[in-house]
């Protein structure tokens, strides 16, 4: 028989802990008396057994609340009536024995809660309404590194720096899933207020150390990333890849494999190699466990492949195989391509050596033409040693810049670089200038003076215009080169000097030697590494680059903003023969920038003699085609190529205009010694 009845709680404190303990005690008595277990029901809650103290306390039953009591059994009605009567009483304890039993019950349940808290893997901290710690379990001790005896009874703010439990207590709002770092541990904390009758009675904080979980998650991410990268690599490689498991079933093929063998993925993956290729290299490797290299076979699509098959060995046993295949026709194509490339390798290597030069050391020398790069390549190689260098070239070709570059690119770059213009110093003073003099050595020598060779010790001396040196001084210079020692004018002491000599001249030393104007032995001493700098008319393709450099330089010096040069003006400069070389070009650009009122240099800003030179050249070409006498075909071809390059400025553009290939125009230009014009204009 099942009975359920209502009871109205009349005790002013409701079913608090001691009263709940009395209810539990009464439940045990009724069960023993009637053999009927009893249950309590509250509206909106699950029924609870009347013999569980913690469950009854959790119902939070107050005075005036209605509680239903249920029981089932032969004597259920008597048992339920007795419990209803007890619940509606004032819960007075009649004797000391009952009082002791109730206290023991409370103590036993309290002990059970403490055991639960102690066994929790998560940290548990509980504070009261005054933010005083009342519970601090062993897991909290381990995570926080604070003993419970030090924590309990003290303010949570003092024990746990940065704690927010007092804030949760004040605001009565939970904070869930808060991530924080405590020591070296990563912690997730849930903080919840204990609210009774609308008032906060404290806070419960439960926190968990998730460091191991975070580490595992990180490792999983790394494994996933590695898998994705490996998959991308396999999908991207040009070689075909086929993977088999230990039972001989194909588990993976990459796109390249499908392309090479000409089959669909569904016809291969999850199919047995015993059926697909029972006598092939893959099946052999699975059966023997030994790799097979260079296996050649022909597929159904007619493609001949070469394969390397390797066993996958795990713990000493064959766990599968991987095959890497190449299309033999592709390999043959690569070999042919390699042969074609190899045919150019030596040439390209030489070209690379020719154009490779120390960028910083020779940065001041502006030029990218073939002849300029050839000269700079020799200069760069000369910088690696200590041999004497003789730089040849017309005036204004940049001999001093190359000499300075050799010094800066050499192991003597940290030493001095001393310049001497032999043509600018009177012959009577040159010896004193080079070797120094003692006090009183001659009239006007009022104090000792160090010579240029002494000043250049451990460095480099640049003897410019060496061809202007008198033969008497040539003999003395030869002694310095041979003996590596000097003596000051008017002195008796001899000094050892460690100086590298770089000489330069614009004169024909060979003719001077033949005429007896220059010592032959000195010539051979100086001409160890000769460097010939081309004149500007020999490297006209460098003119646009030089113009750009001079515009930038002069703009900064005179505070102007010239943006570039017009095509007509560039045409004039390209036609001129430049007897004064780069120095003359710089002077003309400076003159044009100074005189122009616009943002671009135009032909009208150039000297008249330059413009007249272009008119004369054009007239000469027109005359060639208008004269009645017939010239050889090559002369007309030369003039046509020259006119096209002058107009269009590049081999490609000239070739399109003439209906020829780029290669043909370049070859013809080289044959006739024609240099292309690089027509340019800075865009504003």
Structure description:
Residues 2-95 form the HPr domain. A hairpin with a 2-residue loop joins β13 and β14 (317-327). The strands form seven sheets. The chain has a five-stranded antiparallel sheet, sandwiched between helices. Strands 11-10-14-13-12 form a five-stranded antiparallel sheet. Strands 16-19-22-15-23 form a five-stranded parallel sheet. By secondary structure, the chain is an alpha+beta fold. It contains 27 helices and 25 strands. Mean pLDDT is 82; it is low at 677-684. The protein has five domains: 2-115, HPr-like (Histidine-containing Protein, Chain: A); 120-213, Beta-Lactamase, CATH 3.30.450; 370-534, Rossmann fold, CATH 3.40.50.300; 537-616, Helicase, Ruva Protein, domain 3; 633-672. The chain starts with a strand and ends in a 12-residue tail after the last helix.
Short note summarizing the structure:
The chain is an alpha+beta fold and 684 residues long. It folds into five domains: 2-115, 2-Layer Sandwich (Histidine-containing Protein, Chain: A); 120-213, PAS domain (Beta-Lactamase); 370-534, Rossmann fold; 537-616, Helicase, Ruva Protein, domain 3 (Orthogonal Bundle); 633-672. The chain has 27 helices and 25 strands.
The biggest beta sheet reads: 5 strands, antiparallel
Strand order of the largest sheet: 6-5-9-8-7
Which shape, going by the Cα principal axes? elongated
- CATH architecture call of the largest domain: 3-Layer(aba) Sandwich
CATH class of the largest domain: Alpha Beta
Distance between the termini: 105 Å
Helix content: 40-55%
Task: Give the name of the CATH superfamily of the largest domain.
Answer: P-loop containing nucleotide triphosphate hydrolases
Assign the CATH topology of the largest domain: Rossmann fold
Total domain count: 5
How many β strands by DSSP? 25
Helix/sheet category:
alpha+beta
Radius of gyration over C-alpha positions, nearest whole angstrom: 51 Å
Count up the helices: 27
Q: On the 0-100 scale, what is the average pLDDT?
A: 82
Model regions low in confidence, pLDDT < 50 over at least 5 residues = 677-684
Strand content: 15-25%
């Amino acid at each position: 028989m099942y009975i359920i009845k209502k009871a109205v709680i009349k005790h002013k404190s409701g079913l608090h802990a001691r009263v709940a303990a009395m209810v539990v005690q009464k439940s045990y008595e009724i069960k023993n008396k009637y053999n009927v277990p009893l249950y309590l029901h509250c509206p909106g809650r699950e029924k609870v057994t009347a013999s569980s103290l913690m469950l009854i306390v959790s119902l939070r039953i107050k005075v005036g609340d209605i509680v239903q009591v249920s029981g089932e059994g032969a004597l259920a009605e008597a048992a339920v009536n007795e419990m209803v009567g007890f619940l509606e009483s004032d819960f007075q304890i009649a004797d000391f024995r009952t009082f002791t039993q109730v206290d023991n019950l409370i103590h036993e349940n309290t002990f059970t809660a403490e055991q639960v808290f102690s066994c929790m893997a998560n940290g548990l901290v509980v504070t009261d309404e005054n933010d005083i710690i009342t519970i601090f379990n062993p897991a909290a001790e381990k995570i926080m590194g604070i003993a419970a005896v030090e924590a309990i009874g003290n303010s949570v703010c003092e024990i746990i720096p940065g704690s927010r439990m007092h804030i949760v207590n004040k605001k009565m709002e939970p904070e869930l899933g808060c991530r924080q770092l405590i020591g070296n541990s990563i912690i997730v904390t849930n903080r919840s207020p204990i609210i009774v009758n609308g008032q906060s009675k404290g806070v419960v904080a439960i926190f968990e150390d998730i460091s191991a979980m975070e580490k595992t998650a990180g490792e999983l991410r790394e494994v996933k990333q590695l898998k994705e990268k490996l998959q991308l690599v396999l999908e991207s490689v040009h070689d075909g890849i086929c993977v088999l498991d230990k039972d001989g079933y194909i588990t993976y093929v990459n796109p390249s494999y499908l392309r090479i063998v000409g089959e669909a993925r569904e016809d291969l993956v999850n199919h047995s190699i015993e059926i697909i290729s029972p006598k092939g290299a893959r099946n052999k490797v699975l059966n023997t466990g030994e790799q097979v290299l260079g296996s050649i076979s022909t597929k159904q699509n007619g493609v001949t492949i070469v394969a390397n098959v390797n066993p996958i060995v795990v713990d000493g046993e064959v766990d599968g195989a991987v095959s890497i295949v190449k299309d033999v026709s592709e390999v043959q194509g690569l070999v042919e391509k390699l042969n074609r490339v190899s045919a150019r390798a030596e040439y390209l290597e030489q070209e690379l050596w020719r154009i490779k030069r120390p960028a910083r050391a020779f940065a001041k020398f502006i030029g990218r033409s073939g002849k300029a790069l050839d000269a700079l390549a020799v200069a760069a190689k000369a910088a690696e040693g200590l041999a004497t260098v003789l730089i040849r070239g017309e005036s204004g070709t940049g001999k001093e810049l190359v000499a300075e570059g050799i010094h800066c690119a050499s192991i003597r770059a940290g030493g001095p670089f001393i310049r001497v213009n032999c043509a600018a110093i009177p012959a009577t003073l040159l010896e004193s200038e080079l070797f120094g003099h003692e006090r009183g050595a001659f009239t006007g020598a009022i104090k000792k003076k160090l010579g240029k060779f002494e000043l250049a010790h451990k460095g480099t001396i640049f003897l410019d215009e060496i061809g202007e040196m008198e033969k008497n001084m040539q003999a003395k210079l030869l002694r310095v080169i041979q003996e590596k020692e000097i003596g000051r004018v008017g002195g008796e002491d001899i000094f050892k000097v460690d100086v590298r000599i770089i000489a330069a001249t614009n004169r024909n030393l060979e003719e001077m030697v033949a005429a007896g104007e220059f010592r032959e032995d000195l010539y051979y001493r100086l001409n160890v590494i000769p460097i010939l700098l081309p004149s500007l008319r020999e490297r006209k393709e460098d003119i646009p680059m030089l113009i750009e450099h001079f515009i930038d330089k002069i703009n900064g010096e005179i505070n102007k903003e010239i943006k570039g040069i017009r095509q007509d003006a560039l045409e004039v400069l390209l036609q001129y023969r430049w007897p004064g070389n780069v120095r003359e070009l710089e002077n003309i650009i400076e003159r044009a920038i100074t005189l122009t009122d616009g943002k671009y240099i135009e032909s009208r800003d150039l000297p008249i003699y330059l413009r007249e030179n272009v008119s004369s050249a054009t007239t000469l070409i027109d005359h060639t085609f208008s004269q009645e006498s017939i010239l050889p075909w090559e002369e007309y071809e030369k003039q046509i190529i020259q006119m096209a390059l002058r107009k269009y400025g590049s081999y490609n553009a000239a070739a399109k205009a003439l209906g020829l290939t780029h290669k043909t125009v370049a070859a013809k230009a080289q044959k006739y010694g024609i240099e292309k014009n690089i027509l340019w204009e800075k865009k504003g």
